[in-house]
Amino acid sequence: MQVKIYTTPTCAFCKMAKAYFKEHDVAYEEYDVSEDKDKLKEMFDKSGQMGVPVIDIEGKIILGFDQPGIEAALK
After folding, report:
1. How far apart are alpha carbons 69 and 61 in whole angstroms?
2. By the 8 A CB rule, do 1 and 57 touch?
3. Residue 49 phi/psi, 5° resolution?
4. CB–CB of 64/11 below 8 Å?
5. What pLDDT, in 10s, does the model give residues 20-32?
6. How far apart are the first and last CA of the chain?
7. Residue 4 · residue 32 · CB < 8 Å
8. How far is CA 47 from the centre of its chain?
9. Going by DSSP bridges, is the β-strand pair 29-32/60-63 parallel, antiparallel, or unpaired?
10. Could you give the domains of the chain?
11. Does this model's pTM top 0.90?
């Protein structure tokens, strides 16, 4: 399963999402959009949002740390 998370270093909800993934042994790719402008554009194109985290689970876009949404997308 392909999981991508778009983050910034100071985002508390990003840290919560990454901790959730680690706790549940979910492999993910992380993109720091404060450093990578191409990934920032990719994130905006997918979500229409500039806020983080934006989580892409097999093409399903989840805004913020929406634990029920994450769990549903991972099933």
Report:
1. 9
2. yes
3. -120, 150
4. no
5. 999 999 999 999 9
6. 10
7. no
8. 11
9. unpaired
10. 3-74 (3.40.30.10)
11. yes
